[in-house]
Amino acid sequence: MPVPAIDAIMTGAIDGRIFPGAVVLVARDAEILHVAAYGTMTYDPPGNNPVTPATIYDIASLTKMFTATAALRLYDKGKIDLAAPVQAYLPHVRARDVTVWHLLTHTSGLDLRLSTLRHAGREGLLAAVYDALPARPPGSSVAYTNINSLLLGEIITAVYGQPLDRAIDELVCRPLGLQRTGFRPDPALIAHIAPTEFDGEWRGCLVHGVVHDESAYALGGIAGHAGLFSTAGDLWTFCRAWLPAGSDHYPTPLLNPTTLTLAITNQTPGLAQACGLGWMIDRPNFMGPAPRSSYGHTGFTGPALVIVPHDRLIIIVLSNRVHPQRSAPRHHAVTAAIVTAALDSIPTRDSLPGPVT
Q: Is the pTM of this model over 0.85?
């Protein structure tokens, strides 16, 4: 059942040049309720590069959720202890009081602007990350910073014994059957990938088919905090694995149900923001009126995921809002409006005549 209100929201956003194009997918578990592509991949020249539901986007910080999922799978396997200090896995890290749990909840107190280190190269950037000390006592406050997920990715690499891209592929993407999700996409796919920003300051070109995030680029395009490319369809499959009580599509859950429940439950009560293990919880800035205990994530380039567990709703928005240049993040309001339209237009689970699969 298409949602006409979403079409109007997206037309207005494109007319307002919030982004040149986007894909929106709304589903209840295994049932797609609305999926549509809007606009074009770029503003100039218009009309010759339309977005399709299969368009591949740089998903920026949505990468963090794949990193968190890989780490939690290793936790389920007894390979990672959430209460263990980061030093237990990365001995050269100076921040001895920071634990894996702190990284997953963004409560480590570490605060390092990775983009300022882009000229340091891979080794220099990692050296600065390993040398960083908390600016605030670990566990005392929530501060969303890339260094947390970057270090989590380094832990996965050390524990799994394989490069991070292979670890995430084997622990997350392959088990879910994802077809178009990965780091450093094949150049042959360039026509299907939405470009991001024209980087005249550093790279001197339109960033297209390579990661937009400067620090992830300096690390070779593979990092725990950014670097993945994906499609709306793949992200729908990923989100379905994060619905409570699993899904008929996954006879073998990706995570232990106890671990999944832990990850989507507020782990930072009493602090300024609610965080699960990787997930953002109850964030009206992009979730709009989503019921309490909804969870999701956003990315700098324009993507967003919202999961409403009670109604088993999944809302995915993919855009390249940084094209051709980054600006104030007006796209969050668009996502919030889409969530509002979806909740207003789609029957709630309680009003359905039978069980939902």
A: yes
Annotate 61-103 with DSSP letters as a single string: GGHHHHHHHHHHHHHHTTS--TTSBGGGT-TT-S-TT-BHHHH
Residue 340 one-letter amino acid? T
Residues pairing with 31 in the sheet? 28
Numbers of helices and strands, H then E, in the chain: 12, 12
Residue 349 has pLDDT above 80, yes or no: no
Contact call for residues 53 and 66 (beta carbons, < 8 A): no
* CA 292 – CA 30 distance, rounded (Å): 22
- What do you get for the CA distance between the two ends of the chain, in Å? 17
pLDDT tens digits, 175-217: 999 999 999 999 999 999 999 999 998 999 999 999 999 999 9
Cα 334 from Cα 311, distance rounded (Å)? 21
Give the span between the Cα atoms of 72 and 77, in whole angstroms. Answer: 9
User: Does the structure show a pLDDT above 60 at 351?
Assistant: no
The half-sphere exposure of 25 on its side-chain side, counting CA atoms within 13 A, is 29
pLDDT in tens, 258-290: 999 999 999 999 999 999 999 999 999 999 999
The two structure tokens encoding residue 62: 């949505």
Please answer whether residues 62 and 223 qualify as being in contact, where contact means their C-beta atoms are separated by less than 8 angstroms.
no
- Encoding tokens for residue 48? 């010759």
Count CB neighbours of 158 within 10 A. Answer: 13
DSSP 40: B
